[in-house]
Amino acid sequence: MSKDLSYTIEEVSQLLKVSKLTLYDLVKKGELPAFRVGRQMRIDAVDLDHYINNQKTIHRNNFQAPVVDLNRNESRESNHIIISGQDIVLDILSKYIENKSTYKPLRSYTGSLNSLISMYNGECDIVSLHLFDGDTGEYNTPYIKKILAGRTYILLNLLSRKAGFYVKKGNPLNIASWTDLNQKHIKLVNREKGSGARILLDEQLRLYQISPRDINGYEHEESNHLSVASVISSGAADVGVGIEKAAKIVGIDFIPIITERYDLVILKNSETEQLITTLKNILSSRQFQSEINALGDYDTSQTGKIIYETN
User: SUPFAM superfamilies from the xrefs (predicted)?
Assistant: First the structure.
C-alpha cells in the first residue's frame, strides 16, 4: 500500500467486521502496530496487510516461512530456498516443502516479472508467475522463454484463478470492460511495475490502443491485491485490477475478466533435481490440492501439470 495510507480504528473495525475493543486489545498486545495523530489512533495500511496475511498463515497453515528481501542480497544457508510471489497458496506450499523435505523455505512477496528477473540473476529458487502476453494470449511461457533464454527450466501449474476488476459495492459506474477505464470520471488504482496484474492491464491497454496517459489514476501504485481492494473500499479510487479473493476479504465487488494460469518455474540443474521431485510430489498430492480447494476461488484441475520444460 502507499506509505501515506492509514486507517482509523473505526475504519479497521468496519473493514474486518470486529469490535473496536478487539482492535484496541490487539494494539495493546503489540499484535497490530498503531500510531497516534493527536488524540486519534491510526493503523498503517501496510501493517494491516501484514496482520491479515499473518493470521491467514497462522490459522490455515500453523506455519509461517521467514520473509526475505530480494533487494538486500541477504545471506542464506545451503538448504534455504526462496519462494517468490504473493498468493497465500505459496505459504501453504512452503509448509508442505518444510514438512516433506530437508529444505527450509524463505518467502519473498515480490511481483511476477521482478521475481523472474531475480531468478535469472540467481536470487530465487521457485518463482510464481501470472504474466499475460497480449500477442499470443498465453500466460508465462512467452516471458520465461525470453528472460531465461540459455537456461534449462521446468514450468509447473500451481492453479488457475479469476482476474478482473475491483469495484465499489453495486458497481455504480457500471465498469465491465477494459475500454471503460478510458473515461475521465473513472479513477484507477494501479499495481506496481513488474507485477502480473500491472502487466495484464498494460497489455490490455496496448491491445485496445489506450494510452496510459489517458487513464485517470494510472500513476497511483499499490504493492499487492489486498492494498488495491482496500483503496477501492475506502473510496479513494473506483477500479483496480486483481484476483477475486482480495475483493471478498475487503467486501467489495469483483468483475471477472479472465482466467489466469498461475505457474511455478524452477531452474533445472544437479542442485535442483531433488527440489523439482519434491515439488512435483506435493503438487500432485490429493492432500495439497484438497487444502487449496478448501480456500475457494481456485481451480486445481491442472495443478502439477508440466506446462513447459527445456531439455
Answer: Periplasmic binding protein-like II, Putative DNA-binding domain
46 and 148 inside one domain: no
Domain count, the chain: 2
Together in a domain, 142 and 42: no
In whole angstroms, give the CA distance from residue 3 to residue 46.
8
In angstroms, the Cα distances linking 162 to 97, 158, 189, 241, 259 are 26, 14, 19, 11, 5
Closest alpha carbon to 175 in 253, 114, 228: 253
Q: Domain for residue 184, yes or no?
A: yes
220 lies in which domain range? 127-269+279-311
Q: Calculate the alpha carbon distances from 207 to 158, 185, 213, 262 in Å.
A: 27, 22, 15, 22
Whether 91 is covered by a domain: the verdict is no
CA-CA distance, 94 to 159, in Å (whole number)? 15
Please give the sequence-ordered ranges of beta strands (E in DSSP) within 91-132, or none if there are none.
104-108, 126-129
The structure's pTM equals 0.80
